[in-house]
């Protein structure tokens, strides 16, 4: 038999799937995979249900329903003072992962270099490599996740096509500040590159932090493709509704990629997300406050057990150092150990790095019901 595609075939099952299967097998509380265990706003879900019965269910426009594209443009203006033409600068996708694939397939030519900052969300490298890109990896590391500016500057060359920037960053829970973003923007402009910005956690920031899209910095409006996610903003990850904001000349080739990937996204979900994006400010503030309370809840419990807690500035995730517990083994061993012995599952941070991985940190997902977080902490406390 002839071999399948060598790029994609070289990747095994994701660490999330491996650990989730192990959690099911052993009846463990799964704090590994990043999705809430309760659904998002009832009124948004009701809009989807009503639209399913009352509105057409045939192919919507390839670029997305006008009402959602208008809502995305208005959202950009409302939160970031970005003036966006909904007709030529907004496109709806079937989730942020599809949006990433559309952008990378549309912009990368074989041999183009792509700058990425580790630790990496697991789909980034496979898509870049399948598109023919050459990854140039720079890493931030716990406990402080400092941006290594000299290494980042060295990663940019005349062959750099784009940087893929995740902000707020999964799994590091790092939020890039304005100074760091300005440094990145300068490199992008200096090397005539683009920036694909995965900003799906834009409304889940803590301790008074405000999200700053790279697109808002001087000279970046025409070079950025900004990706958002209804799944993260409305705690409805199964809906897989994403959206891209980009200048017309960049969005045009991305739209051609999109037309040959999913083409469209369910129209009732698009109508519901349009409604959600226009909700009162109290909803968005409440989402961040709720997640911050959960972060503090699990951080306190893990610290009491003896974990070393790393600062979490945003997202669903908190990183913990296992060394203070005296565990003899690496982070992969630890995750298997607590699944079997404590009935709690998490994921090793080393899975998000390539070479010379840091092997004594684990990532806990805290977007779960309080009673679930409390039970997980209680099980870990008993085990240690």
UniProtKB/TrEMBL annotation:
<dbReference type="InterPro" id="IPR051326">
    <property type="entry name" value="Kynurenine-oxoglutarate_AT"/>
</dbReference>
<dbReference type="InterPro" id="IPR015424">
    <property type="entry name" value="PyrdxlP-dep_Trfase"/>
</dbReference>
<keyword id="KW-0808">Transferase</keyword>
<dbReference type="GO" id="GO:0005737">
    <property type="term" value="C:cytoplasm"/>
</dbReference>
<dbReference type="InterPro" id="IPR004839">
    <property type="entry name" value="Aminotransferase_I/II_large"/>
</dbReference>
<dbReference type="GO" id="GO:0030170">
    <property type="term" value="F:pyridoxal phosphate binding"/>
</dbReference>
<dbReference type="InterPro" id="IPR015421">
    <property type="entry name" value="PyrdxlP-dep_Trfase_major"/>
</dbReference>
<dbReference type="GO" id="GO:0016212">
    <property type="term" value="F:kynurenine-oxoglutarate transaminase activity"/>
</dbReference>
<feature type="domain" description="Aminotransferase class I/classII large">
    <location>
        <begin position="29"/>
        <end position="380"/>
    </location>
</feature>
<dbReference type="InterPro" id="IPR015422">
    <property type="entry name" value="PyrdxlP-dep_Trfase_small"/>
</dbReference>
<keyword id="KW-0663">Pyridoxal phosphate</keyword>
<keyword id="KW-0032">Aminotransferase</keyword>
<dbReference type="Pfam" id="PF00155">
    <property type="entry name" value="Aminotran_1_2"/>
</dbReference>
<protein>
    <submittedName>
        <fullName>Aminotransferase</fullName>
    </submittedName>
</protein>
<comment type="similarity">
    <text>Belongs to the class-I pyridoxal-phosphate-dependent aminotransferase family.</text>
</comment>
């Amino acid at each position: 038999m002839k071999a399948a595609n060598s790029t994609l075939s070289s990747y095994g099952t994701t660490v999330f799937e491996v650990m989730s299967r192990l959690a099911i097998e052993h009846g463990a509380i799964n704090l590994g995979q990043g999705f809430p265990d309760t659904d998002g706003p009832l009124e948004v879900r009701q809009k989807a249900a009503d639209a399913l019965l009352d509105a057409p269910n045939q192919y919507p426009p390839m670029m997305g329903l006008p009402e959602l594209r208008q809502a995305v443009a208005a959202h950009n203006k409302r939160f970031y003072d970005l003036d966006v033409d909904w007709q030529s600068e907004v496109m709806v996708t079937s989730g942020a992962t599809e949006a990433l694939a559309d952008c990378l397939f549309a912009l990368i030519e074989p041999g183009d270099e792509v700058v990425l900052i580790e630790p990496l969300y697991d789909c980034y490298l496979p898509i870049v490599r399948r598109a023919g890109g050459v990854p140039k990896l720079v890493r931030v590391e716990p406990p402080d996740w400092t941006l290594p500016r000299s290494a980042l500057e060295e990663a940019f060359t005349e062959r750099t096509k784009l940087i893929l920037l995740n902000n707020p960053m999964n799994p590091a829970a790092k939020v890039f500040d304005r100074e760091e973003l300005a440094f990145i923007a300068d490199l992008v402009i200096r090397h005539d590159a683009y920036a694909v910005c995965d900003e799906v956690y834009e409304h889940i920031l803590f301790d008074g932090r405000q999200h700053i899209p790279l697109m808002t910095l001087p000279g970046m409006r025409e070079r950025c493709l900004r990706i958002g996610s209804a799944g993260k903003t409305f705690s409805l990850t199964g809906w897989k509704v994403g959206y891209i904001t980009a200048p017309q000349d960049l969005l045009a080739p991305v739209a051609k990629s999109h037309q040959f990937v999913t083409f469209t996204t369910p129209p009732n979900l698009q109508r519901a997300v349009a409604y959600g994006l226009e909700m009162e400010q109290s909803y968005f503030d409440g989402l961040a406050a709720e997640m911050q309370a959960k972060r503090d809840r699990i951080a306190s419990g893990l610290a009491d057990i003896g974990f070393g807690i790393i600062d979490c500035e945003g997202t669903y995730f908190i990183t913990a150092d296992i060394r203070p517990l005296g565990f003899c083994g690496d982070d992969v061993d630890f995750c298997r150990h607590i699944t079997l012995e404590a009935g709690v599952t998490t994921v090793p941070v080393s899975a998000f790095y390539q070479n010379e991985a840091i092997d004594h940190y684990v990532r806990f997902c805290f977007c779960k019901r309080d009673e679930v977080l409390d039970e997980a902490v209680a099980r870990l406390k008993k085990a240690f």
